[in-house]
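queue> pop job 88
queue> type: inverse folding (structure -> sequence)
queue> payload:
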């Protein structure tokens, strides 16, 4: 055990050496920290502290390697508070905004996703993370792996009241984002992206202005109905039913769409095996 600790400590010390050693040390520590059992040991050896200046390193390879290590260390719940207290959130937000380094951008967004726990959401929102996420979603140059992570973070933050208030002030950007979401949902080609997208839309539903942008500006509600089938994966159908329940009562949804939706829910309930799915169907079918 002591040999392992000494080995980890040496790798951490190398993070402050020449550039070749820094990159290789980051990669080695990242690989070790991909194992849950090693994340605490790597952290205990002081790996978090020397990573901070590396996020602005002039070499994008070193920057990306440091971000990948920070991503793995952020999985450990005990590190969340330390990462935030050390001031990493503004640095991660800056990296997410800089789409020129897609792999680093992906790791930065994934780290923010790990930090987006209930006790830290407020810190992320006040750091301007929400506005940056919207701009990245709307950027046509954003690659799909980055879009997954960014939309996943936004799905968590969109339920926060302060985040919603900030989004209301930039309705044009949000409207553009919702149009993109509607296109993803209609295409039905990438279920992972649809899952995160519906998470964002569901979060919007508790804010009347944002809900109107979703319902009045798109055909999302009718498109969601196409996913209410026994063939839809269980995780996705749960978020589909949750979003449907939140949007169903909007006054602009016409009777035909509602009837089609209820018929689909009735059919799903009759063929579902998952008790959570059956319960969600029963909630939607219950008289209001």
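queue> result:
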């Amino acid at each position: 055990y002591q040999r392992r600790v000494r080995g980890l400590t040496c790798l951490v010390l190398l993070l402050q050496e020449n550039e070749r050693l820094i990159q290789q040390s980051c990669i080695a520590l990242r690989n070790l920290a991909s194992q849950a059992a090693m994340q605490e040991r790597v952290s205990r050896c002081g790996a978090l502290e020397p990573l901070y200046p590396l996020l602005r390193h002039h070499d994008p390879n070193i920057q990306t390697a440091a971000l990948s290590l920070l991503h793995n260390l952020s999985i450990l719940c005990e590190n969340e508070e330390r990462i935030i207290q050390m001031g990493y959130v503004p640095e991660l937000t800056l990296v997410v905004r800089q789409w020129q380094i897609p792999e680093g951008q992906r790791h930065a967004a994934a780290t923010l996703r790990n930090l987006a726990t209930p006790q830290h959401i407020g810190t992320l929102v006040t750091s301007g993370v929400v506005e940056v996420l919207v701009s990245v979603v709307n950027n046509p140059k954003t690659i799909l792996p980055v879009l997954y992570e960014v939309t996943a973070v936004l799905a968590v933050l969109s339920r926060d009241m302060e985040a919603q208030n900030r989004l209301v002030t930039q309705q044009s950007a949000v409207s553009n984002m919702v149009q993109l979401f509607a296109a993803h949902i209609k295409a039905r080609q990438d279920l992972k992206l649809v899952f995160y997208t519906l998470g964002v839309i569901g979060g919007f539903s508790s804010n009347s202005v944002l809900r109107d942008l979703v319902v009045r500006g798109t055909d999302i509600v009718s498109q969601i109905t196409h996913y209410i089938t026994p063939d839809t994966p269980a995780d996705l159908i749960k978020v589909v039913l949750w979003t449907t329940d939140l949007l169903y009562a909007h006054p602009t949804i016409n009777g035909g769409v509602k009837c089609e939706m209820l018929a689909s829910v009735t059919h799903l309930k009759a063929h579902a095996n998952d008790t959570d799915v059956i319960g969600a169907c029963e909630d939607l079918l219950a008289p209001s």
